[in-house]
Amino acid sequence: MKNKKIFSKLFMICIMIFFYMPIVYTVVFSFNSKKSLTHWSGFSLTWYEKMFSSRDMMSALWTTISIAVLATIISTVVGTITAIGLSKSNKVLKNIVERINDFPIMNPEIVTAISLLMLFSALGVQKGYFTMLLAHIMFCIPYVMLSVNPKLRSLDPNLADAALDLGATPWQALIKVIIPQIMPGIVSGALVAFTMSFDDFIISYFVTGNGVSNISILVYTMSKRINPSINALSTIIILIITVVLVLINIIPVLKRRGGVKE
Q1: What is the SS3 assignment for 210?
Q2: Cβ atoms of 193 and 143 closer than 8 Å
Q3: Which residue among 68, 79, 174, 255 is buried most deeply as judged by most CB within 10 Å?
Q4: Euclidean distance between CA atoms 22 and 50, whole angstroms
């Protein structure tokens, strides 16, 4: 039994090393003074300076962040409103919309990418920033709905009616009663949507146009030549995501402790 526990711990350590060693490697060699990705030559911020001075990298970073933020906001609003509306709809309409909502999740990304490419081409829409944003909103909405729906099912169906009976308007019942109750689901859906948009490559690659690329497309185009500036860019992204995740997990704990003290 003891040997089994030791083996389990060693196995978990190996898995953690397997997943996190590439991240550590990327961060360490982003500070390498030479171009080599295998030989450490000394500490330097050269690649960070080149990254910030590179117009292509800064443009890709801006495109990635702006599309991720816009897609997250729009998909969260649309997905939440749709989920709330479906919760009050008849069963047939609800099942039809939910099945349609599952298509972007179940389909391989390459199928979705080619379908969107054919759609934009058939409509004569010029591919670029706008088409990439529309594509990201399209595949983010289902994830928001999947996060919000369980929270809506757990609500008392008479909660909104009770708010209306107490004098609240339909808008007040939605904003002050329904939304606060399902807020954890909304936040979870928004985080998933932001992650999916920020990380997407396949769909973005098919629906973008000349001169518009996000970080994943930029990394793909630069993968055939050694450029440690990519390590610097990746390190900054890792830092941002880590800080956001830490804040998201710490703030609720601090609020709960503050509530207990009060």
Answers
A1: coil
A2: yes
A3: 79
A4: 22
Token pair in block for residue 55: 């117009």
Cβ atoms < 10 Å from Cβ of 256: 10
Residue 133's contacts (CB-CB under 8 Å, 6 or more residues apart) are 67, 70, 71
Count CB atoms within 10 A of the CB of residue 104.
Answer: 20
Alpha carbon distances (Å) from 238 to 14, 114, 123, 127, 198 = 22, 30, 38, 29, 12
pLDDT higher than 80, residue 35:
no
pTM of the model: 0.80
187 neighbors 232 (Cβ within 8 angstroms): no
The residue type of 31 is F
- Give which of 229, 190, 244 is closest to 61, Cα–Cα: 229
Q: Could you give the CA distance from residue 217 to residue 132 in angstroms, rounded to a whole number?
A: 12
The answer to whether the beta carbons of residues 207 and 131 sit under 8 Å apart is yes
> CA 31 to CA 49: how far, in whole Å?
11
